[in-house]
Amino acid sequence: MSSCLFKRFSDLGPIAGLSLSVMSLCVLTTPDTAYAYKAFVSNEKGNTVSVIDSETWEQIAEFPAGNRPRGIGLSPDGKHLYVCASDDDTVKVFDAHTYEFLWSLPSGPDPELFVLSLDGSKLYASNEDDNLVTVVDTEKKTVIAEIPVGVEPEGMAVSPDMRFVVNTSETTNMAHFISTEDYKIKHNVLVDQRPRYARFTSDGDTLFVSSEIGGTVSVINMLGETGPELETKIGFEVAGVQPEWLQPVGMRVTADNNWLFVALGPSNRVAVIDIEKREVVRYILVGQRVWQLEFTPDEKYLLTTNGNSNDVTVIDVAEQEAIKSVQVGQQPWGVVVSPD
Fold it and tell me: In whole angstroms, how large is the CA radius of gyration of the chain?
């Protein structure tokens, strides 16, 4: 890669308003990629999904995905791409190889985010308008249950042991722990204002919940004596960046449970947290209004969706540096990567 402006974003200081694409004044070389992957990016205002090739780091396709596509994911076998078409009140399913639309799932009104069971047989979607989590049988294409939760549900996570599905409610400011056996809420944990996303460590011992307006990530211990317990909260501070711009949203945890990467919204930064120490060790400058994140399957790269600069930033995970910007559609929101 170039050694000019991309040497290390964390050393550049308070340049919060600049996107990675604006700062690309030097020619970048394509990162070495051991395997070819395809990244799928939902474009919330463009009503499309962009497809990026990891060998060239270029957009190779774009296809319509319904109205206001946001949450996006793949079936465990990689054959089917699921997209929350929020304004169509459905989850659309596409062939992940041909991009052909296959069928829709009855997701409930205004689906925003979802999570699949480990075997892909169930889809759990948050319905922001009706304060519900909808459980869908992906094979039968039917609704199994509708679970009342807090006001404005958004974030969804499933525990590695499949005991709990977690939903975060933005206005109630809680993480709700729903039993996968009877679909009843067993625990509630109060977090900071406007929780947006939830993510487990791979061992299931810890859950992280990002609070956009509260400006923190809550660390929840899953091994508490009476159930999930709030352990601590991690805050963020960047010189020259207004605190209200530091809005944690999407998160990803490395498989070894060493690092937590947190998208910080309009601050145009990704925070790198040392999980063992529970502290931020670096901020990586990316595109404008970074929202969601996803690793490549080998965890060599981390991709971020940057809604206001209409691009995706490629981060070298080992070096914890941004190395490439890829233009996509209008207002990219979610991202998932397939090993194809």
Answer: 19
